[in-house]
Amino acid sequence: MSSALYTLGRWCHQHRRHVLATWLLALTLIASLAVAIGTGTKEEYRVPNSESQEALDYIKGTFPEISGTSAQIIVIAPNGHTITDRAIRTDIENSIKRIENIDSVKVVTNPYDKNVSGSLSADNRAALINIQFTGDFFSITDTTRDTLTNEANTLTHNGTRAVAGGAIYNNAVPTMSWTEGIGLILSALVLLIFFRAVRATAAPIVSALLGAGVSLALLFLATSITVLTDTTPMLALMIGMAVGIDYSLFLLARHRENLLAGIDPAESAARATATAGSAVLFAGFTVITALAGLSVVGLPFLTTMGIGSAIAVAIAVAAALTITPALMSLLGRNILAHRQRTNPPRHATAGPRWAHIWIRTVTRFPLLTIIILTSALIFASIPARNLELALPDAGTTNPGTNARLTYDLTAEHFGPGANGPLLVVADIVKSERPRELMDDLKKEVASIPGIHHVSLATPNRNADTGVVIAIPTTAPSDPATTQLVHEIRNRATTWEKRYDTTLSVTGATAAQIDISEMLGKALIPFALVVMGLCLLLLLIVFRSILVPLTATLGFLLSVLTAFGAVAAVYSWGWFAEPLSVSRLGPVISFMPIILMGVLFGLAMDYQMFIVSRMHEHYSHNGDPDSAVENGFAAAAPVVTAAAVIMVGIFAAFVPHGSATIKPIALGLAVGVFVDAFIVRMAIVPAALKLFGHGAWWLPGKLATNLPAIDVEGSGVMRQIAAQKTSNRHPQRIVHATNLTVRGGRGTVFSDLNLTLNDGQLAVLAGPEGSGKTTAILTLAGRIYPSAGDLVVNGHVMPEHSGTIQHLASLAEIHGVNPLENDLSVKQNIAETLSTRTLMPWARRRDIDAVMTSLNHLITYALDTAELPIEPTAGNSRLVHRDTLVRDLPRLSRMLLGIVLATIGRPPFILIDDIDTLRTIPERRGAWAAIGLLLSERDTPLAILTACQDSMNIDELTTLTGLPETDITQINLADIYNPADAPQTTEETVTQQPATTASKAHN
């Protein structure tokens, strides 16, 4: 991964204009399409497979009069008058006639109709006109809304007040206010302090703005094919901007370190993208995974919210990895402060003085630090016990809007329950007296405590479905309304038996209650999944038991503290006025699950960047105390800047954000602050200091079975170092250092060291079953080493395993790449040629060339070994192309495998046990053939082979004809553990895990 990022960073740096033009073009095209065909957001919350949703879907076909979207006009008489005054009544009834002629209007209820109950307030000061439309929200045009608003304005005269509101006015296009701009200004100030260069300050903001712009345009374009709540784009914008700036900052900070060390700008950009970019990619993956995980709850609106935010994070990652290197190219060395540009190159310092003071303070008495800070966070989370959750209604919209005015006036004059009617739907197809049945159901519903009145109880025109519309005494978000819905559903079981019908409780209020309860049930499982994922990821990354435990417990403390802060504001009223919280009470019901998902990813960011530096220092010097201090000091500046930016952006959405986004932004701002500055920069370092070496302990068997992940780009740095070494030693083909392979029960072999130059031969000696084949496959890149370093022709394992597998060619190994016994020599050659050339066939001249090489090698081997030459199948050639492989003599078959390995002229050929040949002359012939290959080479070539008995160098020199200096022998008995040798089969080779291992991780 880091190698690909290295290439990407260099390419983007070299093609900056193409990169920036592509992003600008994408933004322009997507935004244009969004404006042209996007339909806008809508507050629609569906609950698949719930009683309320199934009933709503049912009445769409059976009761179209009440299934469409709706609107209301509330009319209030002036002081000293009643709503029944003749003049006011005449105006209202004339307005109703005009409204009935508006397109898409299905039914308009006359509040003065004797059959309509509850549309006139008890004090006769207000009347409620209910308008039902034929279609859903999306079928209502702006013209219809404007016409209805004008009708309300017509009724507003001579002291009479009228306001139009309802569901059709809930279409809210999120807008940016000046407070969000403050978030960007704060980010710019932090970046300016960090970089001390104006141009460098602009780079992360430009990258984040481009990424966020594309994300926002893409989401509004998506409204043409799916429903998005207004929370979705705002949440995506908030998260996308925050992580976009942070991710770009991480890359630029590493780029600055490289420049200060005197590295060329293009190389520096490539390295920064490979190293910091690897961490950014991993961090982005964790955030995306957590957000996409919201889809498991099974709520469509939450799925789109999670996927939308995940897309924003993915685009932010892409922007950071492409736009940032392009901006590095534009900035050149101007990313550095003037003093830094003029001073000579230097290596990175040990971190700022304040970071050392901070870490020494919090780790001086680590146990005391942990106890005090943990207790404080637990205390701060106490208000979370009073956190109330509900879905938004018109009462949470911005004050002054039509929807909010109508909601407030309706609650004032008709009671809070008038804003959340409950629908009891009855299947009355079996009834012979549908009207009487509906009257009975009306009485049953009206008798329930908590029902203010029943406004309507009627069958439909086909008399197969009936609806009872009940008005509660409490508001839709009131817990008492939830209890009322459950009470109606409990009693409905008795009514169904009594009246031989099927009943369902539905309506917007019942649906919101079902959603909130579903979210409540999903919260604990989701929390367990998130914390489990946290444990697993950090266990793999840091290969430690304590690090993931402290990270997970710290994440839990951060989440609970964030919940406590939200509850303190919304339930207890603390700082409600300064934060512009217009209504206390329940917060959006999906706030906890959204906050947990987002905060999880961000917490992993800070854990990664701080603890990885500590882990790096510990791996180098083995001193846990200095690792904590120096690692923290190295990471603290960039993490501090990133956290301040993140907190600032989230906090900027609080004062004037929508009612749905405000509590989420507040929770994220508090959560990030606590997680970054208290948990990651105090509690976690104190815990690591307290446990010393034990903080980095991992059981041996677990270490063996865990894959290793390179999230700091150490692989590409090893590749760069290997390439430099290769340039200094162009004759070197293989260099293995402390190569180790572990099996399920322990170490197979360890500390295998080997250096092979062009023209040299290495011999692995060991008895049968001693691990020779395992070592060969490891050196050939087919088995991933558990520890140590392997470089083949300048390419390192495991980052370039595919390239090494191409460079290191295997002769025939039983169970790995056996020759096809039932095919001829020619067919085996053709198959190998087509595999190498990726062509479906092999040319005759290529086959002939391989046959010539094979016969030349066999002839030389037989002559040297003084073996008789016996024509095959009566032909004059030693091996005929049509001879089946199964019919070849043992030596000829081995040499065929070796010749096939030379196809494509690889620089490294590996041959299995020579001593499988039964006779001494055959073995002598094989050794001679190997020596001939090296002597006649016209391209760089090194060969590694194996034998069972250790041989002295003089004997090998005699057998191969090679000089003593070109032969190396390794006795596997010195490094081999026979009890743990894996069974070497084709399956064990092809199914090796594609993980990234490094010496530091093992």
Automatic annotation (TrEMBL):
Residues 981-1002 are annotated as: Disordered. GO terms for molecular function: ATP binding; ATP hydrolysis activity; transmembrane transporter activity. It is found in: Cell membrane. Pfam families: ABC_tran (PF00005), MMPL (PF03176). Keywords: ATP-binding, Cell membrane, Membrane, Nucleotide-binding, Transmembrane, Transmembrane helix. It is a multi-pass membrane protein. Residues 734-997 form the ABC transporter domain. Residues 197-330 form the SSD domain. Gene3D superfamilies: Multidrug efflux transporter AcrB transmembrane domain (1.20.1640.10), P-loop containing nucleotide triphosphate hydrolases (3.40.50.300). The chain crosses the membrane at residues 178-198, 205-228, 234-253, 274-301, 307-331, 365-384, 522-542, 554-575, 587-611, 632-654, 660-679. GO terms for cellular component: plasma membrane. This is Putative membrane protein ydgH.
